[in-house]
Specification:
This protein has 78 residues and is mainly α. The protein has 3 helices and no strands. The two termini are 31 Å apart. The relative contact order is 0.14. The model has no long low-confidence stretch (mean pLDDT 91).
């Protein structure tokens, strides 16, 4: 996909934001599952490939979204 200059950053920032919605819902579900549980139970849940992948994916996605958003704020206001 060929995008004009600067549009690729806009596209990735919006895409990351949209993906954070279901990721955030999953994270809230995950927190409800591990509430008041012992660490062994939490590690057992994270050994499930889907749960581990989702947690790592969500952390990376949050980092990318934060980086792009902060970069945009710095460019616009500083």
């Amino acid at each position: 996909m060929t995008l004009p200059h600067g549009a690729h950053q806009w596209f990735w920032a919006r895409s990351a934001g949209v993906l954070l919605i279901p990721g955030g819902i999953w994270f809230l579900w995950f927190l409800a599952q591990i509430k008041n549980k012992d660490p062994a139970y939490i590690l057992n849940i994270l050994q499930n490939p889907f749960e581990g992948f989702m947690l790592i994916f969500l952390i990376c996605l949050f980092g990318v979204h934060s980086y792009l958003g902060l970069k945009e704020v710095i460019i616009d206001y500083i």
